[in-house]
Amino acid sequence: MKRGKVVSMILACTMLLAVFTGMFASAASDMETVLFDLQSLGIMIGDENGDMDLDEPVTRAEFSAIVVRLMGMEDVAPLSAGQEKFSDVPQEHWAAGYINLLSGLRVIEGIGNGLFEPDGNITVEAACKILVNTLGYSAVANQKGGFPTGYMMQAAEIGLLKNLGETKIPLTRGEVARLVYNALDID
Length: 187
Known about the structure:
Layout: H1 2-40, H2 60-70, H3 96-104, H4 124-134, H5 138-143, H6 149-158, H7 173-183
Helix pairs in contact: 1-7, 2-3, 4-6
């Protein structure tokens, strides 16, 4: 009798292990697809070796560049570099064109007092607001309460947060990849 219980326990543990292994393999495979697609589209390119450093934080300037690439407007961004819309983003800043372009399109705003804080880390709330604006849902988000609640509600409703899980503060490159990948499928 005891031997049957032990065999049953071993079988149950083996089945659970198989399920968890399958889940992790599926999640890893899914992230490989996300990264492959974003790199193929030139939206997120990684370092010189193509490494995405998925656990590293993303700055507001980096996120701006990613969003401009998502919009397919990277060639236009350098034309906006000469404008100084934020006092902490001089025209020589590597991301000035990206930031100024998005500001001109009313996709992004600064943090107040004429500042953008380009080297500050992007939060999930700020990233969602920028992507919701990019996708044309800002009016609906403002009707739902504005920033941050209305934008987060709208982001969830349109599927921007799909498969994201609990996010870190600041957002990591892996989390940003997931958000941007989700944005690709939203009308």
